[in-house]
Every structure is written in structure tokens, then in C-alpha cells.
Amino acid sequence: MGGEGNTIYRQEAPSNMIFQYDQDWIDQNLDYPTLLNNFYWFDFVDNRGRCNFVWRRAQASLVESLMNTKGRKEYPSDIGFRAANYLALLQMSSYYNFLHSRGIEIENIFKWFFEVYLLKEFGAEGFVYDASSPNTTTGERNKLIATQIDHVLKQFDLFCTYGIIDREYLEFTSQHTIFKDVPSMIPCKYAYSDSTFLNQEAEYLFSRASYLIYIDSTDEIVESIYDLLMVRNLNISEFNEIQRGQLDFLVDRGLIKITTEGYLRLDQNRAAILRQIYEKEYLCLSYEKTDDDPLKSMLDNNELKVESSLFSRPEQKYLNYILNKSEFSNGLDLRNKYIHSTHSLDEHAQFEDYMRFLMVMAIIIIKINEEFCLRGSNHNTCLFEAEAQ
Length: 389
Known about the structure:
Layout: E1 11-12, E2 18-19, H1 23-27, H2 32-41, H3 62-66, H4 79-101, H5 106-122, H6 138-162, H7 167-172, E3 190-193, H8 196-206, H9 225-231, H10 241-252, E4 256-258, E5 264-266, H11 268-279, E6 283-284, H12 295-300, E7 304-307, H13 313-323, H14 334-339, H15 347-375
């Protein structure tokens, strides 16, 4: 973000991660839409709106996968997951401190999104966000934002279901939010593999543990047979008998074709879909051409299970890990700790928790903004339009 200007924050983490941002550029762009858009530039989500903080099996190193000793109800917390979340925590902390020094509270930007932006851009009436006061202690801020997470998701649920937000009904409900039950305005939003064969294709093509990666005739260091196919013109004669069985499977599935001379040719369209299934664990159908093969054939053959909800399955798990212990025994349980006043009294720990709450709310806002953009078939411009505060 920005160019080679002044550094607003420079942090060298234990893993030697260093990041810096252009202070002058941000100073010149302090309007709320741009300040919200910066969360996209921080890579809080990918180019299809998928949260980048979640744990993904494909992220784990081969050694970690083989030596994983976590309990059955523990959320995986490998090096890749911890690094991504630590970086995001540092980004949020630096961003918060910088904006605070300019008299801007991030929660006031959140309030603007719900109470001004949604109404002006999409005619969505009735959304309310109670931002904490700058004079409030960090512990009290955490209690309030924990309730606001439930509050805004209940409002969105009502808007999805009825097209309006009935305050009387909202005030009558007392149950807290179950993330998997938060609906979507977008039918057929996510697609998950529901086929053992489809999963096997993805494993053979992209896994570092696939037999196909071991080719005696090459010195290329790659992480998957897909990478090797991108740099080498491979012939079937280079594979041994065990590997031939996996290749035959991929040929039968239509992923690979063998030329008359024995060379392997990859179906790039199918590989692109399989890559998302392997690396991200699901597809966002609004961004895909569902009327084209091979995705159409996967849907027609019921190899993909289609669901519609605000959060994808990995995002639901991540939110449960951060905010409660309903699913994972090692969950951070931030929501319940602050609602029930069982949180740490250490001010540094409370500040880190507040940054995590801000991260969660930023993701919720990005997901809700995407919903309104997709509903209007405008998924290529899901950023917040720049305007005066």
C-alpha cells in the first residue's frame, strides 16, 4: 500500500517478518471508504472474499502433517496459521495506533459502514452499530465489541430473512449467534467437494506427498506434480509402475491426457478448480463460470455440495475458535471471557484481544459488503466507494 514514503510502523517479529506502510499516502486518504478498503490491501481476504486467517490443511508442512498430535476437538494451530494471524495482529495494531494518533477510531469507521454506507449505497435501513468511546477502558471496549458482533449478525440475519430489521423482534431475541446459521442473500454461494474421487484428484495433483512428484529424470525442486508439469514436458515413460496407477486415475478423470508420443497434457481449467478445492477447501460460485465445463459437470454429477451462508465452513470454524469454545477445546473464547468478566487483567493482553475483535469485525464487514455487492451482480467492484465522510 502506497510507495516509498515515511514508515508509520515498522515491526520485526521473532520470525523476522518486517512490514511498513507509506504514512504520507494514508494521511492523504483518511476518508472512511478508503480506510476500510485498506483491509483488502492488508490481504484480510483473497480475491474471492475468502478470509485468509483460517487454518487450511494444504498450508501445513509435510512434517507437521505427519507429526500432528492435536486432540480430536482442537483447532489446528500450525506454523503457517500462527504466522498469518500474528502478521494480521501486527497490521491491525499498527493501523489502529496510526489512526488513533490522527483522531480516528476504527470503530467509528465500522459505525459509518453500518449506519451510513449500507443505507446510502444499498438502501439497507435499520442497521445500528454501537461504537465504544475513546475514553472507555480496553476491557470495557472488548465487552462492548463482543456484543456488537452478535448484534450486527442478528441484524443481517433479519435483513436476509425479511428484507427489513424489526427492532422489536431483535430486542426480544436473546440467543447468541451461531455462525453456521447466519444466512446469505446469495443462493448457491459456496461449493464444497462431496466426492472422494475429486479430493483424490486434487491430492495427486497438488500434494507434496504424492508419489508423482518423484521423477528420477529431473533435478527440478518442486512441491507438486502440477508445478513440475509447468516447467517440464513430461513423458509417461518417466514414471514407474506405482506412479502409472495414479496417472491412469487422473487420465480416467479427464484431468490429464496422453499424446500419441506419450507426453502429459493437463486440463488447465479443471486444474484451476481443483487447486481451489485443495488450497482453499471450497469455491465461491459467484466468481466462477458455472455454465462451463468442467465446473458444470462437477455440479451436474453432484460432486460438489452447494450451500448458502454468510460464512464458509472454514470461516465458521475460525470464528468459533476465536470467540467461543462451542466447537474446539483450545478456542480462545474471547466473547465469553469478556461477557462473563473472566478475561485477563493484563492491559497488554486486553489490547491484543481488542485487536483480534477488530480483525473479526473487519472480516464481518467485508463479508456483508460482499453480500450486497453480489446481490447487485457487481462482484468485480466490491470495494467501498470513496466519498467524503
